[in-house]
């Protein structure tokens, strides 16, 4: 049997909490930076995430991780908001942020470009559809995309 990835285990642990507290699980990262490992959990909610929300989620998750002990090496746990330029990862994100300005980054160039900006039209058949000003709409296969994030419009 293949070992479960840390992010999958953490997701299983945190989802009951997020559902109970009406929080959105945005992303989970387990990364090594320098000599240290970081377990980062990004949450959001309608009206914005408070410091108390982050603290409560951190305490809950820390207790669950201590009980299960799925991570053998030492790490730092961080629970926070994804910020205003949040990444869009889950199918529901593409529905929720339809009409918003996004940046789409690709692993490899498409039509000579690796970065596209436009209005998010949605997700259809596992393709991200955006409307690029003066060019029209384009469809980008999701498996070619390294990152989709909201753009901040200061106008």
Automatic annotation (TrEMBL):
Key words of the record: Cytoplasm, Ribosome biogenesis
InterPro entries xrefs: Ribosome_maturation_RimP, RimP_C, RimP_C_sf, RimP_N, RimP_N_sf
Domain called Ribosome maturation factor RimP C-terminal: residue spans: 88-154
Domain Ribosome maturation factor RimP N-terminal: 13-85
One of the GO BP terms on file: translation
Any one of the GO CC terms: cytosol
Pfam families, sorted: DUF150_C, RimP_N
Gene3D superfamilies given in the database record: Ribosome maturation factor RimP, C-terminal domain (2.30.30.180), RimP-like superfamily, N-terminal (3.30.300.70)
CDD domains: YlxS_C (cd01734)
Compartmental location: Cytoplasm
Family indicated by similarity: Belongs to the RimP family.
Function: Required for maturation of 30S ribosomal subunits.
Protein's name according to its UniProt entry: Ribosome maturation factor RimP
Organism of provenance: Caminicella sporogenes DSM 14501
Lineage: Bacteria, Bacillati, Bacillota, Clostridia, Peptostreptococcales
Annotated gene: rimP
């Amino acid at each position: 049997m293949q070992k479960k990835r840390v992010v999958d285990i953490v997701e299983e642990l945190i989802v009951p909490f997020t559902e109970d507290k009406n929080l959105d699980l945005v992303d989970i990262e387990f990364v090594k930076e320098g000599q240290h490992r970081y377990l980062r959990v990004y949450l959001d909610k309608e009206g914005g995430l408070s410091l108390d929300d982050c603290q409560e989620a951190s305490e809950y998750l820390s207790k669950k991780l201590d009980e299960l002990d799925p991570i053998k090496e030492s790490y730092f746990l961080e629970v926070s908001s994804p910020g205003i330029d949040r990444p869009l990862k889950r199918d529901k994100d593409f529905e929720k942020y339809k009409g918003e300005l996004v940046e789409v980054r690709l692993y490899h160039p498409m039509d000579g470009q690796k970065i596209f900006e436009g209005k998010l039209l949605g997700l259809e058949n596992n393709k991200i559809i955006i409307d690029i000003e003066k060019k029209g709409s384009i469809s980008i296969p999701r498996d070619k995309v390294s990152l989709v994030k909201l753009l901040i419009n200061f106008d």
